[in-house]
Amino acid sequence: MGHSPTPRCIIVRHGQTEWSKSGQYTGLTDLPLTDYGVGQMLRTGESIFSNNRFINPDHITYIFTSPRTRAKQTIELVLKPLSEEQRSKIKVIVDNDLREWEYGDYEGLLTKEIVELRKSRGLDKARPWNIWRDGCENGETTEEVGLRLSRVIARIQNLHKKHQEQGIPSDIMVFAHGHALRYFAAIWLRLGEEKECITAFSKQKVKSYEEDESVVPYVEITKFRHLVDNPFFLLDAGGIGVLSYAHHSIDEPALDLAGAFISPPEEESQHAPVPNKNY
Fold first, then answer.
1. Which segments does the entry list as coiled coil (predicted)?
2. pLDDT digit string, tens, across residues 67-116
3. Which residue in the list 3, 100, 143, 268 is annotated as catalytic?
């Protein structure tokens, strides 16, 4: 199990758009990257694959992406340094469960405008609005976002487990959005609350991607996590974060504080599996 690198989940927020620049909430609105955003993600691709070589392209097994243009455009730009052969070996999965929070009435608004709108509707008299707890009017609740992102995490961790058993290095990249990826990282780390899938809504089998189960096995979840407060994670447009596992164990999801930097194998000894888990 220690012969291949610990699997990683590399999260990438799409590059700058006009609304990410202005701070407007961008859910289902399908904006392209700005010219700056295009250059930004081209530079990112050069840095991680060519200049600093933080990511070995031959270790990328899958890319999961939001269906929005800004996410898919970012993938094309970041992967530019790769050869056609390298790109052909990466399975790109467009997964609707990775879409941004559906903001409903708040789409296109700034935070201060949302606060004023809610005040005009007589809301938040007892405490300030918190999207991670209160969700969005005529949009998604935090439970709905947590449920669908829990499904994505289950699929990715299942793939990582299979690759690890096969001794295959496996970096899985996830291209999505600001709120969605911060939420994703938080519940990867098991923050928030856990709920049983007991309602008809949480128990339904949702096929959020087109590929058959030979490409991405369907994973039925019996529990899901959702947030009840701000996780206080930052991820600016074009930002990259790295999630992985402690002690090479898929049962121990962790935050890789070293980010995309890869330690040489001889430096990984302190992460080896240990028989006693009281650490």
1. none
2. 999 999 999 999 999 999 999 999 999 999 999 999 999 999 999 999 99
3. 100
Report d(CA 70, CA 67) in Å as an integer.
Answer: 9
- To the nearest 10°, the Cα dihedral for 38, 131, 147, 233? 60
pTM: 0.93
Whether 26 has a binding-site annotation, put simply, is yes
Q: Any idea where the domains of the chain sit in the sequence?
A: 6-254
Catalytic residue (choose from 14, 160, 177, 226): 14
pLDDT at 217 over 60: yes
Neighbouring residues of 137: CB distance < 8 A, sequence distance ≥ 6 = 104, 105, 106, 118, 121
At the second CATH level, the architecture of 6-254 is 3-Layer(aba) Sandwich (3.40)
DSSP-derived pairing of the beta strands 171-176 and 253-255:
unpaired
Residue 219 has pLDDT above 90, yes or no: yes
> What percent of the chain is helix, strand and coil (3-state, nearest 5)?
40, 15, 45
Could you tell me the pLDDT band of residue 21, with boundaries at 50, 70 and 90?
very high
Q: How many helices (H) and strands (E) does the chain have?
A: 9, 8
Q: What is the mean pLDDT of residues 145-155?
A: 98
Q: Catalytic site residue 194?
A: no
According to DSSP, the β-strands at 8-13 and 91-94 are unpaired
Residue 100 annotated as lining a ligand binding site:
yes
Question: Tokens standing for 163?
Answer: 């690759």
